[in-house]
Amino acid sequence: MNTFIKYLAIIAILPSAVLADDYAGMSPEEKGLAIAEKADATTNGFVDSTANMRMILTNRHGQTSERELRVRTMEVENDGDKSMTIFDTPADVKGTALLTYTHKLKNDDQWLYMPAIRRVKRMSSSNKSGPFMGSEFAFEDLGSQEVEKYTWKYLKDEELNGVATYVLERVPVDKKSGYTRQTIWMHQANLYALKIDFYDRKNSLLKTLDFSEHKLYQDKFWRAHNMMMVNHQTGKKTDLIWSDIVFGNGYTESDFTKQSLQRLR
Question: What stretch of H or E contains 54?
């Protein structure tokens, strides 16, 4: 199951119905991995996409501030995706951009461009748990969530808001992750995430990400248009509202380089 774009946009191709017998005789670990791999396989083939996004930050007192962003993604064969997140408003962050190369078997590469000082800063993998631009999303939440980066376990079937889901647990392989584990409620028929609970390094519930307003594109790709990340420990939350999603933009490798960060318009 692939964030920021595959993970946060939750692209998924509508699969055929999954039969319970598909997982008969499997251990919870084998079943969890099999479901995750099946969900991941359905995300292949989108090639590239672009979208607009409103980011609404809400503090513990209910006060809000808004930011407008653009997000571009390109699929990479046999590896994670490349993505670029660009801030258009407010004025104090306009032109700030994050470039992410996600990988299946090694740490993601991330670079942040800060227009005020005209500098591209490489983000350290040891800082992946830090907040992204004051939001409740960490830097590690912004890459596609490759199956290989976790160990998996099926927990149970459960109904969530009237929808049949698989409840899975995944544990990050990377010891520098800000999370000990995550619990995912996955739509059984369409294999996209509906909810994720994140547990901190003390194994306490830290955040919950809820996905809603899923829409189907090109009869193949599911996207969640509303995402809400609530921090249970601080009382803050971040809402992401997606619009103007377009596939097939003809992006190439040259559109996702450190040099291209400084040429953004």
Answer: strand 48-58
- Report domain extents, the chain: 4-261
Question: Under CATH, to which class is 4-261 assigned?
Answer: mainly beta
Cα angle 107-140-261, degrees, rounded to a multiple of 5: 80
pLDDT, tens digit, for every residue of 105-160?
A: 888 899 999 888 888 999 877 677 888 889 999 988 877 688 999 999 999 999 99
Pairing of strands 82-89, 221-231: unpaired
Helix/strand/coil for 148 = helix
Task: List CB contacts of 264: < 8 A, sequence separation 6 or more.
Answer: 86, 95, 97, 113
Q: For the whole model, what pTM was predicted?
A: 0.88
3-state secondary structure of 239: strand
Give the DSSP H/E element, type plus range, for residue 259. Answer: helix 258-261
Grade residue 265 by pLDDT with cuts at 50, 70 and 90.
low
